[in-house]
Design goal:
It is built from four helices and six strands. With 162 residues, the chain is of the alpha+beta class.
């Protein structure tokens, strides 16, 4: 079996998850991961909005004929818990994670993997870029600094979600 995360399926989810692991994003330092999400929205022509707390909402219109369906909101937070082994020299504000497949497990070399909530971010981005899914209206909510104070959730603008 390959140790390469990009060999995992579904490819779109793992492509985004890998990219997320390469962007340092501990709590309080989410600027670069926010920029990744905003650039993704721009590149894919996805409507997006931010609020004063720094949260981001992406909006994907319903598939033709499904406009009358109830909308759904998928939510994930942008920060991760920065933990490392005591013998690991690693700076979570500057260094990319080193993920790899180990048998049936995905792990990182000497650090937390950031799977909470990196996999949620990756899944939302995968859904947003897909042109194969049939769906009603979808919003992807990306919240700030959840691990250390729920800042994004508490600061969420009451008018940002449709």
């Amino acid at each position: 079996m390959s140790k390469n995360i990009l060999s995992l399926k579904p490819e779109s989810v793992w492509k985004h998850f890998y990219a997320i692991t390469q962007i340092p994003h501990p709590s309080g330092h989410e600027e670069r991961i926010r920029q990744y999400v905003l650039e993704f929205a721009q590149q894919h022509g996805i409507e997006h909005e931010t609020d004063s707390a720094g949260n981001i909402v992406l909006r994907k219109k319903a598939t033709a004929g499904l406009e009358d369906r109830k909308g759904i909101i998928m939510q994930a937070h942008l920060d991760m818990v920065p933990q490392k082994n005591s013998d690991k020299n690693f700076n979570f504000e500057t260094d990319p994670l080193q993920p790899y497949v180990d048998g049936d497990w995905l792990t990182a070399d000497g650090t937390t993997l950031g799977a909470d909530n990196g996999i949620g971010l990756a899944a939302i981005l995968s859904v947003m870029e897909s042109d194969h899914l049939e769906h009603g209206p979808i919003e992807g909510l990306f919240t700030m600094t959840e691990e250390t104070g729920m800042d994004g959730a508490f600061g969420l603008s009451p008018t940002i979600l449709q």
